[in-house]
Amino acid sequence: MNKFINTIKNIFAIEDLRTRILNTLLFIAIYRLGCYVVLPGIDPNRLKQGTNGVFGILDTLLGGAFSHASIFALGIMPYISASIVLQLLTIAVPYFQKLQKEGESGRKKINQYTRILTIPIVMAQSAGFLATINAEAIANPGTFFTISTMLIITAGTLFCMWLGEKITDKGIGNGISMIIMIGIVSRLPGALIGEAASKGINKSLIFLLEMVVLFLIVMAVIVLTQAVRRIPVQYAKQVGGTTQLDAQRQFIPLKVNAAGVMPIIFAQSLMFVPNIAAQAWNKNSELAASIATYFSPENWVYNAVFAFLIIVFTYFYTAISVNPNQIADDLKRSGGFVPGVKPGRDTSEFIDEILTRITLPGAVALALIAVFPTVALLLGVTRPLSLFYGGTSLIIMVGVVLDTLNQVESYLLMRHYDGMMKSSKLRGRPSQPIAIAS
Predict the structure, then answer these.
(1) I want to staple 311 with a disulfide (CB 3.0 to 4.6 A). Which of 156, 231, 260, 363 is the partner?
(2) CA 57 → CA 51, 117, 394, distances in Å?
(3) Domain finish residue from 144, 165, 199
């Protein structure tokens, strides 16, 4: 306990870090305040209470802004959609591939294209959002209300983008991820209170067991997020002028879950297509009823297909995010080599083989984590809390917290303070130098 208190004192003793933390808290407070500002022309007392399916997941990621019909109803999600589209374009379109290789200037152009693409995406999604609001909650429905509300939601999303960029520049952590994480965490206290109330005193032991299981799942997600396979790299002796550098042994860290949360997001988007298509075709038909039954999150068919898609997308996203050929070329140019493996093509094939092997357990673990909220729901956990037993919410939460702690620890170590752990480094962080191919 004393070490924890001393660490907090050290954090606030660093002026730059203290300022960044206070700025982050200020920007987060502004965002949370906006989540409760209801759109003009909508009666919040007549809004439908509760959201299920994709809307329930979206509402969790937005911290209730979606169900409250606030000016931040779509939050940062359209920007995330635009980022995914630009990421795919950097693979398929030569122009964007060229931009990606231009370094900082290319990255700025891609970010600018992402901001521009966000506007039409949020306009389209805001129209879909208005369709989910029950007519009784709208005071004066009509063309003017629709257009003005779409503009307000678009402005709200752009303001969330600005807040995220400000957190990145003047705060601590990645601003966009931080905004999503805060929205998720804001629902956790209410979910815990609701779960405790539903169990009551008679089932307090069951509630305690649920908390233990939740803790173990969080630990498993941390392990999956931090797990890496280290490939040893040897650098030959280098002579420059009158100095001679001895041979160095470093490592290339290949993450077991290099795809992160993206496979779950892609798979989740596809899993709602059958229901939407059936509803659009003929929502009163027997076919639509059958599709709604089989593609319900509680059905085993839904979860089996969902898990399969996650495994497929994990391999796909890993293949486009980690390039063994580029890693091998960078090693060859810098004079490094993997012991026992020839530089060049052999090294690329060696890295690709290892990546393929470690991706399978990572993909299976990710699929299990994604379907576990359904398992928790079937075992009696209330729906709001079951979303924290895995899936997108938990992975985002764990990833953002670990990234923020890493940044805080870096500030402490630069100022010669003890790190967040006794070993002066977070678990999962390498203790030896790392060879990172850029």
Answers:
(1) 363
(2) 8, 23, 12
(3) 199
With beta carbons less than 8 A apart as the criterion, state whether 207 and 199 touch.
yes
Q: Is 368 exposed, middle or buried (0-12, 13-18, 19+ CB in 10 A)?
A: middle
| 157 and 17 within one domain | yes
Tokens of 46: 């007549």
Of 26-30, 72-76, 219-223, 289-293, minimum mean pLDDT range: 289-293
Write the CATH number for 175.
Answer: 1.10.3370.10
Integer Cα distance of 173 and 161 in angstroms? 15
Of the candidate ranges 21-25, 286-290, 411-415, the one whose mean pLDDT is the lowest: 286-290
Q: 212 and 193 in one domain?
A: no
CA–CA gap between residue 155 and residue 166 (Å, rounded): 16
DSSP 8-state class, residue 44: G
Neighbours of 241 (CB within 10 A): 5
Do the beta carbons of residue 323 and residue 314 sit within 8 Å?
Answer: no
193 and 216 both lie in a single domain: no
Other CB atoms closer than 10 Å to residue 217's CB: what's the count?
20
Please count the other Cβ atoms lying within 10 Å of the Cβ belonging to residue 302: 19
Whether residues 247 and 322 share a domain: the answer is yes
| pLDDT band at 45; cut points 50, 70, 90 | confident
Q: For the ranges 177-186, 235-244, 346-355, which has the lowest average pLDDT?
A: 235-244
Query: What domain range is 372 assigned to?
Result: 208-396+426-438
Domain-ending residue, one of 175, 199, 223: 199
- Tally of structural domains, the chain: 2
Residue 4 has pLDDT above 70, yes or no: yes
Residues 89, 218 within the same domain: no
- Give tens-digit pLDDT for 192-221: 888 888 877 777 888 899 899 999 999 998
* CB-CB contact of 152 with 40 (8 Å): yes
Point out the least confidently predicted range of 222-236, 399-413, 424-438: 424-438
In a shared domain, residues 223 and 194: no
- pLDDT band at 29; cut points 50, 70, 90: very high
307: left (phi over 0), alpha (psi -120 to 50) or beta: alpha
Task: Indicate if 170 and 93 belong to the same structural domain.
Answer: yes
- Would the pLDDT of 26 be above 90? yes
* Mean pLDDT on 48-58: 59
Paired tokens of 52? 């299920």
